[in-house]
Amino acid sequence: MSKQEKIKVSAGEDLLAFIPHIVGYWPENSVVCIGMAGKALRATMRLDLPEGGPADLDHFADVAAGQLGTDERADGSLVAIFGGPDWSDPEDFAHREVFDTLRAALAREGLPVRDAWYVGRDHWRSINCGNPVCCPWPGHSNSKITGSLVSAELVFRGSSVEDSPRQRVPAMTAVRDPEQSAKVARAAEPFLAPLGAHGTAENQLVVTLGAWERALAHWPEQPDTVMTGYLVASLGNTAVRDAVLVSLSATPEMSLAGVLGTGYLQPDVPEPVVPQHWYGSSQAAGYDIAILDESDAAIDAAAGLFSDALLGGSAGEHRPALAPNWTRMDQAEELVLHLAGSVDGEAKAPLLCVLGWIQWCRGRGTWAGAYFVESQKFVPEYRLAQLLDRLLQVGFVAAWAKDQQTAWPGYRRQVEAA
């Protein structure tokens, strides 16, 4: 089968086999909605099953339909509910109200549900078909999904189904070498107080953004122990952390101008703290960060872009959201994963939050939420993780993820591979 050839999905088990490969794991207590344009599958969205009353249910359905409805090419939808127990009693479908409310909301968005399935612990079945001949009770064995030709073809193409993000995030970010982690903590200690107090002084922020830029440019070469400690310590200052986030999505120069435009940039300090061998060696060469255009118009524009980037490209009504540099963001994820696995304790919280923010910008809410929860295990109610998690809960989707022109290309590659 050629790389360009599409996989044809015809039976229910084929479509259901497609879902865990696109999501990356077997969904649990979830609703998965897939947009359709004619017979072509479009965007896939996974949401936790709602647990509240009618008001929460209506909100859930409106959020789901609204998100799927941002795809202007979609003209229909498919729904799969991944619940717990099998649906054994024809007269008692535990998620009937969820499905009916969601179907009505999707219809209002011009995305009528063309087919729907319920997947239990061991069996799956059509939601709309009660004929015991083609849809026996409690349904078909889930082995028909995992053993389908579509599942086999996806595996052949290199796709895999792994544990859920809630299980994988702690394992992916666990300390790899406790002895090395202790060395990093000792290396970070001298930087914590000065970066916390004066991290947004202009000459200090220039060094910090330059250090991050060097680490990113040299990746996958791992930063040494002192540089690792410096990068970790820099995120202890929340304004610096925000500047780093924006720098990872665009350029350090734009980030520095944005900090000036938002009023956080402070006057120079007499002597900024720097990583080992930063000055007087080749380490700092080529990483001199400066504001390229200090005109009022340029600084105002940078301030707007800075704020937009922090909110996942959330531009105002009269200006488009500019796409981030996804190549930088993907590389930054690898670097920050390495840093997160190098430290323990409170220093881990901002790193996990940064990783969650990257996933949120990609539109991968489940991954983002897992990182935000993990972040707050190390610092309870870590402010940015808490705020972004609340945005997730109310259905706020990063603007970058809602527009195909700015969306993460990694998702498109996943869909194309499937």
UniProtKB/TrEMBL annotation:
Note the Pfam families from the entry.
DUF4192
InterPro entries of this UniProt entry?
A: DUF4192
Protein name per UniProt: DUF4192 domain-containing protein
